[in-house]
Amino acid sequence: MNAPDIRDMSDVDLAAKLKDSRDELFKLRFRLATGQLDNPGLIAGVKKDIARLLTESRAREIKAAAESKAS
Fold first, then answer.
1. Dist. CA 15–CA 57, nearest whole Å
2. What's the total number of domains in the chain?
3. What is the pTM of this model?
């Protein structure tokens, strides 16, 4: 998932994708611990997606606060 795709998401979709990504990260870590994960690089990719989602969420919070303060 790349940044332009994330920017196009609604707030509800963003929250849902964040929840799904966190669940996926949990499952990947569990598979890693049990020795069933063939590609541990997947964990890094999911972590980066979570970071992108959190960054966009925070940017929207800051923008909303600035707009409400300006009004």
1. 8
2. 1
3. 0.91
